[in-house]
Amino acid sequence: MDKSTKIQRRRADFVGASAEYIDQLYEAFCEDPDQVSAEWRSFFYGFDHGVDTEGQGPAGHLPQPSLIHPGLDRLFMAYRLSGHLFADLDPLGLVANQRPKELDPAYYGLQSADLQQPVNVVSIEAEQALPAAEVIEVLERVYCGTLASEYLHLSAADERRWIERRLESTRGDLAAQNSNRERIAVLRDLTAAEGLEQYLHRRYVGQKRFSLEGGDSLIPLLDEIVQGGGQRGVTDVVIGMAHRGRLNVLVNLLGKAPSELFSEFEGDHSLDAGSGSGDVKYHQGFYSNIQTPGGPVHLSLAFNPSHLEIIGPVVQGGCRARQDRHETDAKDLVLPVIVHGDAAFIGQGVVTETLNLSKTAAYGTGGTIHVVVNNQIGFTTSHPQEARSTLYCTEVAKLIQAPIFHVNGDDPDAVLFVTRLAIDYRLTFQNDVVIDLVCYRRQGHNEADEPMMTQPQMYQRIRNMPTTRQLYARRLVEDGLVKADDAEEMRESYRYSLEQGKVVVREFLRGSRSGYEAHWEEYLNARPDEQVETRVDRALLCRLGQQTLKLPEGFTLQRAVARVVAERQRMLSAEVPLDWGMAETLAYATLLHEGYAVRLSGQDSVRGTFAHRHATFHDQNNFSTHTPLEQLFEGQPRFEVINSILSELAVLGFEYGYATSMPGTLVIWEAQFGDFGNGAQMVIDQFIASGYLKWGRLCQLTLFLPHGFEGQGPEHSSARLERYLQLCAELNMRVWVPTTPAQFFHLLRDQMMRRFRRPLIVMTPKSLLRHPMAKSQLQAFTDGALASVLPEADDLDPQRVRRVVLCSGKVYFELLQTRRERGIEDIAILRVEQLYPFPRHPLAEILSGYGQLTEILWCQEEPRNQGAWYQIQHHLRFLAQSEQSLGYAGRSPSASPACGDATLHREQQMALIDTALSAGRVEDPGERLDDTDMHIDGNLSS
After folding, report:
1. 592-619: per-residue pLDDT in tens?
2. What number of other Cβ atoms are within 10 A of residue 763's Cβ?
3. In the CATH hierarchy, which fold is given to the domain comprising 184-266+297-518?
4. Which pLDDT score is estimated for 815?
């Protein structure tokens, strides 16, 4: 008898059973037997293993099962699927949840007799069957109490089963899952959380602190992550969070001394000598070491700007760097924790981008514990329905199949339980997990805000509510764990500790150095005028170069790539000059040889957007690949070249975090086109440009931004050079426009070999990657050095030069070629390769060699209101002598970076070349207002 006939025969055994429902159950059983109940498993195993319809199967086979009403299975599944819709999550009780009809036994035609049937639900009671009514009561407590769970969207059956068993085995009694000692410790954490806020509220009236009040359970939650994580072998916890509750976390979790915080409130906190501008107190980070049952755990709270969720990818990058320091897989040692706001979690696109990184090989960190402090009020005054289009603010986490647990913040027992569940899940399955801490905000958006203006009903209820600490203390008194006087003594003791100004975290380990200090010590007091040797011995350079061209036996290259490899062989033998791709490869190879690791990422970085890099070769006959720089020699440092996800913001944030945690690695982010950096401007402005001045964070991150006007339209021309120069001050970063492969080689080596570590912005070329004039002889790598200004290339008589044209980038080669074609001998062309810090002294020295110089002219491809002109002209005016005029050659001001018409582009380009090489004097545009500007201004003023 075939299987389908058996199913048809067996259907007759079920009174009231739906044939369609049985078919659905059987399909689920075939996919994963544990998706159906034990009774249905026994039933399906029966005919799968040969038991006939009369139950006369072979000896040793499963017996004929006792059968239950199919509606019971559907009801049980409904609790797991929809129970969260009726859970008791809101401490304020503002919205009355409507009970889903799927949770009503009558919906499935169940009668009283059906509810007395014994059923075996392994996740509740493995040893015996329970009456169905008792199972329903358990599921009601588990899924409709103060903890609501969403996990059935997970495709991994083992993960679903694991969560189901952890939840249902508690029978809904979450307080019983915590020992008396642990519950008293929770009360102590709540007392600290509330005590700090109330103390600051009284002492610093009206000062902004973005208090945690109403979300007090965050402190015992984070404390459990640290202590529980340490007990399970975690050695590092890296936390990212915005400003709400940050001061509380600093003092009550990481061990920042209250006296230091009070000094910041009072405005007499002295900045370190090298800390620059500093930042407000609720953006500050902190490092400490905390004792746990499993040993010390290093805590890092990342410095954070006001852009709420942007810290997420930075934390991920920092965690990945810490994991990469270990020789073996360290995902269970380093744990990322990100604390979100409810409206920000779903509202900020960088959250989605960061979640999308989580399971990729190059950016994964083994899962993150996400904690959403859900104040139910959005950001300032908005209602949840104004802040999102979904039922929960956590829906976005389903993108990566992360389980989501919503918990009532006024039930600390449930909070403690779900925190342990989250830790164990993350360490077991190395996947992200979300805790949605549903709470409220006792104060306004900040302490100077009056929430009654916009949320009168909510705040009338809040002001009459006992605090989370008061509620929990009352519960522990009722349970006989503490006396009312004990709870009051805790409160007074904490207040006394605050007044003493000393560290209040008992597990704080004094005298230990932070990981940041340990790794960055040799770079902390470096001098900005440091000079390093970047040339490389020829024999070594060629030996390493040959290794970068070595292929496995039988490896077949694509025809064009084979030509590239053959040409690079000729370059190493000095038959032909070296191009950009080979110079870059040699820079990486030599840095690896000297002990530096390299990490390069971007949307097409392995091949290179313009097919110039070919860091990885692809066999044309199979799926194998070969990356020579990964295996130059045994025991070499790590080399990674990564095709990133299609993201700028999250990826650059990740690389910044990685770079600040890995000083021995040249970390590079490459934009596919330079203006794609627009998508990551937040990271550039708030971290790369200002991280050192605000927070003292050193960073050697390098940005490759392809730049050059080749008639490809507005979005593929400009890397927005002017923006980076505008951000430059106080030696915060370097901006270069190298024009030769050798310059690029020396620049990359210089970036890692110098101890004065700052971010490096490189305007990399496009057409110059293969330009015959943009190549370098091998000698330039072995005997040359990095130059901030490149002098005149031709043999001109210095005494005949009347004009010096200064420029950067691709336009140099067009100027040079045109000058040669026209036979001009009285105009010299200099390349300013480093635009910040501007090389005044080297440039002045070169200019002094032209005794008859009457005119200095700046030439650029970019419109006059863009590019370098406005940011460097003050340097040029300083350099020009009294008898020398200053001129400009370039495009007129424009609201667009470049034109979109190729013909118009060529006309504009030729015009600026003609101006730069003209015989007559070129006017300084600073002396007059452009006619177009005057016309527009006139229209506006009229």
Report:
1. 999 999 999 999 999 999 999 999 999 9
2. 27
3. Rossmann fold (3.40.50)
4. 98
Average pLDDT taken over every residue of the chain: 89
Tokens of 854: 């009457």
- Which pLDDT score, from 0 to 100, does residue 684 have? 96
Asked if residues 628 and 543 have their Cβ atoms less than 8 Å apart, the reply is no
Between 338 and 389, whose confidence is greater? 338
pLDDT in tens, 421-476: 999 999 999 999 999 999 988 887 766 677 777 777 787 888 889 999 999 999 99
Quote the pTM value: 0.91
DSSP state of 921: P
- The pair of structure tokens assigned to 864 is 């006059």
- Going from N- to C-terminal start, the domains of the chain cover 3-168, 184-266+297-518, 578-614+633-782, 789-941
In CATH, which of 3.30.470.20, 3.90.1150.10, 3.40.50.11610, 3.90.25.10 is domain 789-941?
Answer: 3.40.50.11610
Contacts of 707 (CB under 8 A, 6+ apart): 674, 717, 718, 719, 721, 737, 763, 764, 765, 766, 809
User: Which residue from 731, 721, 760, 751 is spatially nearest to 872, judged by alpha carbons?
Assistant: 721
Measure the CA–CA gap between 89 and 437, rounded to whole angstroms: 9
Task: Please say whether the beta carbons of 437 and 222 come within 8 A.
Answer: no
Edge to edge, the sheet with strand 597-602 lists: 639-643, 597-602, 665-670, 702-706, 760-764, 734-736, 834-836
Is the CATH number 3.40.50.920 carried by domain 578-614+633-782?
no
* β-bridge mates for residue 287, sequence order: 300
Q: Which amino acid is at 81?
A: L
The DSSP string of 766-784 is SGGGS-TTS-B-THHHHT-
| pLDDT for position 61 | 36
Beta bridge partners of 369: 337, 433
Q: Is the CA virtual torsion 630, 635, 637, 638 positive or negative? A: positive
